[in-house]
Design a protein that fits this description.
Two copies of one chain form a homodimer.
Chain A (H helix, E strand, L loop, with lengths): L9 H13 L3 H10 L2 H10 L2 H10 L2 H10 L2 H9 L3 H8 L4 H10 L2 H9 L3 H11 L6 H4 L5 E4 L4 H10 L1 H5 L5 E5 L5 E6 L12 H4 L1 E2 L4 E2 L4 H10 L5 E4 L5 E5 L1 H19 L13 H28 L1 H6 L3 H29 L7 H31 L2 H31 L4 H27 L5
Parallel strand pairs in A: 1-2, 5-6
Antiparallel strand pairs in A: 2-3, 3-4, 6-7
Helix pairs in contact in A: 1-3, 4-5, 5-7, 6-8, 7-9, 8-10, 15-16, 16-22, 17-22, 19-20, 19-21, 19-22, 20-21, 21-22
Amino acid sequence: MEPLEPGKKLEKLWEELSSQINTDDPQQIVAFLDKITPADTALAVSRLNPEEQTRLLTLLNPEDAADVIADISDTQGADLIEELQPGHAAAILEELDSDHIVDILGELDEADASAIIDQMTPVEAEKARQFLTYAPDSAGGLMISEYLDFQSNQTVQDVLEELQNNREKYAEYDVQYLYVTDDNNHLQGVLRLRDLLFPKRTTKLASLMISNPFRVNANDSLLQLHNFFEEHNLFGVPVVNDDSRLLGIVLPEAVAEEKHNRSTDQFLGFSGIIGGEEFRSMPLLARSGRRLSWLSLNVVLNILAASVIAFYQDTLAAVIALAVFLPMVSDMSGCSGNQAVAVSMRELSLGLVRPTELLRVLAKEASLGVLNGLALGILLGAIAYVWKGNAFLGLVVGGALAVNTIVAVSLGGLIPLLLKRAKLDPALVSSPLLTTVTDMCGFFFVLSFASLVLEKL
Amino acid sequence: MEPLEPGKKLEKLWEELSSQINTDDPQQIVAFLDKITPADTALAVSRLNPEEQTRLLTLLNPEDAADVIADISDTQGADLIEELQPGHAAAILEELDSDHIVDILGELDEADASAIIDQMTPVEAEKARQFLTYAPDSAGGLMISEYLDFQSNQTVQDVLEELQNNREKYAEYDVQYLYVTDDNNHLQGVLRLRDLLFPKRTTKLASLMISNPFRVNANDSLLQLHNFFEEHNLFGVPVVNDDSRLLGIVLPEAVAEEKHNRSTDQFLGFSGIIGGEEFRSMPLLARSGRRLSWLSLNVVLNILAASVIAFYQDTLAAVIALAVFLPMVSDMSGCSGNQAVAVSMRELSLGLVRPTELLRVLAKEASLGVLNGLALGILLGAIAYVWKGNAFLGLVVGGALAVNTIVAVSLGGLIPLLLKRAKLDPALVSSPLLTTVTDMCGFFFVLSFASLVLEKL
């Protein structure tokens, strides 16, 4: 592989693309894009200003424009597609794989998506509408409609002729198998392409195919698909509806890619980036607004937590040293709790714990909470004692941290399971929910323990 | 696909495995494991107690034991392997793909790994030692040594005979290509397996092969491999050293899997789970100790931050209402900063920003910081003003949050780039580093602004 030299000719790259867009010569642009890697295309396109991006997609013919869309992330692709006339957008999207079409349409407003679908050819529009009814991480959402299917009474000759006559169309198909269906599109069997090489040309597919092949249901989950490909080393699996009608195929790469996307979303959600991905090439106001929408929820939660301090103001005024320990207790329990959240989310995604196993998780986390709570409580208590020479201060602070650590890890372990059962996204909600509760409890334990022994502090 | 029915017969599953282990009948155990999915195997094995797990691997023959290891995560696999006699561990590992062997050896202590390698056959041991010299996310770390290579002067007949004679060995090879090398193992060309079907048996490979095929260097990074497979729709790529000697092949699945693992590590590290994955089936003390090691670093950072409050105790004692706002200002800026961290880490991993582009990130984040800082500052300032009816309190609190938000998002955006340049892991270090600084600065801004207008508060 040629060394990709990241960063070396960075500025030139998008400046060159930008200047080529201004020459209005699509052939030159395509020649340039063909020369650089998909990653460099993504980088260069992301650094263009919005007018140049729209101009780029308008200048290119739909096929070349689709190649650009395929190189960049779905979020960025959707942003670009949104700016085009629906007819033009439809022409570009039709050049993509069907799961990719749906991924991009799924990122758009319903009205925008619908306007684009209306401009597609009736067959493609029908398919897009059908595909959009499936959850994006189900077999139906991950399948592509670019597969080969034939009827069981067709012959090897029929297949070879069809492949020959539509060579160009099939050349782009990323499939190794050929599916056999009956008149009503019920899945009957499967053949490997190479199985066509040896038999007589007049052989019927019915006698060559493997009957009753492996299949997944359109509603099967990502975890089920992942398990399927772990168990069966195949290059693809047919997707059927409840009536065993063939709808599409899922490739193992699509499953791996979606798993990767899920972890990314998890990470971004956990860090407070919601409503899709953010790139710094997006307009400032859009980035600011989306980040603020999550932060303003946080203000409310923070007020809830801080109101505990307001309630105990007199205690705090009497022993101002406590103010130093309030954020320490709440921060440290928050960290302990987030560790438990991460372990639960990981075990959930690997299928190593079921959302119903609350007692198991509680037992595992509470016992760990006692251990770590004691260790951290003794440490912080000792620090407080050494600093102020007051054993009661040490007891209050250390005791509060110990108790709050038990609360935090127990809750942290349970919250993802509870959210999963409530069909909420654990990545998004776990951390702010946990932090609010551990802050409130942390402040409460420190200040209420202190008010019990106020005259000794 | 048969419905997997998650959770339904959960308890029975591992209880049954456990009772079968106690019958000491390996054939019955294998029959049971063959019946359940890999995911259920992983779940059932993870719920056994350590003695049962070791017993399971000891009862099974190496090949069946290797199948179990392949179904569970590398971390868990390494934990199990560690408990076995090195000779037995070596026999099991030799049944795995070479990249998997290295993944598991890489999770062990160097001494343990070395003891196991010493028990391998000389050829496998040599290979393992060589493979371990490559970074786990480089082409060398992801490659497998299970590929077909022949000399350019061999004929089609030679290849077909070799394949025929070693049918069993090659049946497990997950490859579509055949590589052609010269006497010194220099990569010369590549052939698709199906290219062997049509030519005369006496044809030399040299005249059939595609010369100078695509290749990657053993030190190429995960991002480079990802870009390679994005650009070239291939089922594998040969890996060579600096002398163009063929070392192994990388499959696209391995790249997708490693990308997924990286995002998972990122997420776990970000949440304070370090030193490898944690599962609740691990011993309590090990889990507690590993979590504490990260938390104790956090204690030190928290003391640093809290010392700012200690320094300003008098100001705080004079205006106790400030205590309510201290955690709010530090929490909210921490959240804003973490959003910027997440965006930087995402852009880094997609190659959309280079670690050297500090000024670009600073400009993008600082401008967003001004916007969001103003919005949040005005909001919190208004809340403070309404609560206490003191405009100066509102100014102090709102001003501190505004300024600290600008600091937090700018730093949050830059930290991952700086850590990357310093070859530290951004996922692990970004968040605690950022939180400490934003806590310190938050406390400092609130209390120092307050001390400036103390008589008005």
